[in-house]
Automatic annotation (TrEMBL):
Gene3D superfamilies: Winged helix-like DNA-binding domain superfamily/Winged helix DNA-binding domain
GO molecular function, one term: DNA-binding transcription factor activity
PANTHER family per record: HTH-TYPE TRANSCRIPTIONAL REPRESSOR YTRA (PTHR38445)
Pfam family, one: GntR
Lineage per the UniProt record: Bacteria, Bacillati, Actinomycetota, Actinomycetes, Pseudonocardiales
Keyword line: DNA-binding, Transcription, Transcription regulation
Name of the protein in its database record: DNA-binding transcriptional regulator YhcF, GntR family
Domain HTH gntR-type: 14-82
């Protein structure tokens, strides 16, 4: 089992289950989690992240429904051999859409939102 580097930001406005799901998808897409890699048991990951077991169970169900992972009683939850391979552009568009929705909900104009992205992106 590979150590799973996932962080939940309770102040982000994005549901914790979604944050965990999105990070696992990105790890699979980047190849940091390869097919056959075993994910931590639900209770362990929930405890590590300070979340309810039901929250992580939902993440694993959603990932399995989308074809990213598969679950077997004996092996636990592992990255699927046939996991979808989303391209970086598609992931970026999805992240941008979520960010734009959050910015609009805050009443922020596009220029301010773009400035926030540039600041977060950092130099270079």
């Amino acid at each position: 089992m590979t150590a799973l580097r996932v962080v939940v930001d309770v102040g982000s406005g994005l549901a914790p289950w979604r944050q965990v799901q999105d990070q696992i998808v990105r790890l699979i897409t980047r190849g940091a989690l390869t097919p056959g890699t075993r994910l931590p048991p639900i209770r362990q990951l929930a405890g590590d992240l300070g979340l309810a077991s039901g929250t992580i169970a939902r993440v694993y169900r959603e990932l399995e429904a989308a074809g990213w992972v598969r679950t077997a009683r004996a092996r636990g939850t592992v990255v699927a051999d046939t996991a979808p391979r989303a391209d970086a552009a598609a992931l970026l568009r999805a992240a941008a859409a979520e960010f734009a929705t959050a910015a609009k909900d805050l009443g922020v104009d596009a220029e301010t939102a773009v400035a926030a992205v540039r600041e977060a992106y950092g130099p270079g």
